Amino acid sequence: xxxxxxxxxxxxxxxxxxxxxxxxxxxxxxxxxxxxxxxxxxxxxxxxxxxxxxxxxxxxxxxxxxxxxxxxxxxxxxxxxxxxxxxxxxxxxxxxxxxxxxxxxxxxxxxxxxxxxxxxxxxxxxxxxxxxxxxxxxxxxxxxxxxxxxxxxxxxxxxxxxxxxxxxxxxxxxxxxxxxxxxxxxxxxxxxxxxxxxxxxxxxxxxxxxxxxxxxxx
Length: 218
What we know:
Blueprint: H1 11-35, H2 46-52, H3 56-72, H4 77-101, H5 103-108, H6 123-143, H7 146-163, H8 173-189, H9 199-214
């Protein structure tokens, strides 16, 4: 039986051809991958984006501060819960109203750190959340005591006034002083007998608020 003669390159030639074919297939795959449209990014959860618009850092810090003041002042579990819930609702309303009011300015400035500015959540939805949080803040504050609740709501109203335009004036530190100063007064007035808050503590926390205003951009 006659054996078929091999080409001049022998077995190595077949390996070279197979290698070239493999390289050609890989090049085709890479070209197809480069030409294919990029997979769309999964949008962030609406709830998480809404949470991000409430200024979560300051909201949590102020809420924890008041919870600590309530415990230190001798409030029981019920009083501490009411005070903490009222302040948390108030801080949510302040943070959300800030981003809702500043939406157009933040978009123009390219604030990618703001969920509303990058289109992750609509300004109308953030404003609705702010109004709902404020509506919850009112009864929660008054449950802690009528006078205490009125003081806390005055502080929240001052923060809203800042968001609605006072921030652009020379009076911008005033809402911070009123808002922060109202917190220890709120806690003290919620104690049995509604004792007068220590003015030194109120002044110290108010000055802390003024310092916070100096370090904030919005």
